[in-house]
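Write out the 3D structure for:
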Amino acid sequence: MAKMCEVCGKTPVFGNRVSHAHNVSSRRWMPNLQRVRAIVDGSVKRISVCTRCIRSGAVKKAAR
């Protein structure tokens, strides 16, 4: 499964880890993904969504 939000398409961001001695190695920032039961096209599906989309109301959660 890709580490990608199924609503907004947010993916990991790459950068560098820099130590005090300025040694540089690669690192990445992951999106905060949650598996939620959401209503997609009128049916209930489990989708992987970032917390920003959940908070903004871009995802309609399904009732239990």
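The chain has a mean pLDDT of 95.
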